[in-house]
Task: structure prediction
Amino acid sequence: MPHQLLIVDDSRAMRAVIRKVLEMAGLAEAGYHEAGSGREALKVLAGTKIDLVLTDINMPEMTGLELLAEIKRTQRLKAIPVVIISTEGSAERKIEAVKLGASGYLQKPFQPEAVRKLLEKTLGWRHDG
Amino acid sequence: MTASRAIDFLDQATREVLETMFFVFPDPIPGPDQLTCPAGEAPALCCLIEFKGPTAGRLEAYYNQALSRTLAANFLGQSEEEVPEALILDTAKELTNMICGRFLALLEPKRTILMGLPRSEICQAKDPGCLFGGEGETLVMQAEEGLVAFRLVLEGVA
Result:
């Protein structure tokens, strides 16, 4: 059963780019799900078993950090790793994300290689080729 | 913090974002006051982000049409012909979002500055001087593919 990944970003273009980067990092066979806000992401999580969430922070309706907090306080969801991919990069924000339970933090703009290394480092995923 | 230093940070942020994720290599145009409309031809894509916190203000960005399409194509890894129109504006918004975020990280590396959601529109250059009127500092950059112009307003900065 391939990994099921949820990409959360209010930019459709950015969601497409993140997916492409993940596919190039060896996750071409994964199942991809998308959401444009934290609230939409929770709807996806309610109906699909997700293995990894990658989320932006600054989004309408519900921010990525609010989504992260909600995931980590929900028994059924709290084991899912959540990686933040955001334009915000202050030390303060990164600490906040880690305290809420983020498994990794990547600031935009990013090199595709940084995504692969983040997945390996935080999740122990290694894909060759 | 001076306006000049802030523009240096904006220049750096713009280059980093455009080079890393959009494969575009711009250079600043000296003497931007001499330009009347950075779009070259109307209309242009205009994006605005407001921010608040230890530093407050706003960033306006203007991309001429040719550049906008190239940016979207490069970002998405598609040809210019196959890029959906809807994603061109979305890409311009996300680009502005990334530039603003990187700029603010250079300005205040330790503290959080809250960014609003980017707003965008197709703007008509009705008044050739419209993009350079008013407060703030301007930065215009030229890439092989076209022009991008910024107006930066920082509260409390001379």
Remarks:
- Residues 34-39 of chain B have pLDDT under 50 and may be disordered.
- Strands of chain B lie at 27-28, 44-52, 57-64, 114-115, 119-123, 137-143, 146-154.
- The interface with chain A takes residues 16-17, 20-21, 72, 75-77, 86-87, 90-91, 93-94, 97-98, 100-102, 104-105, 108-113, 115, 117 of chain B (CB under 8 Å).
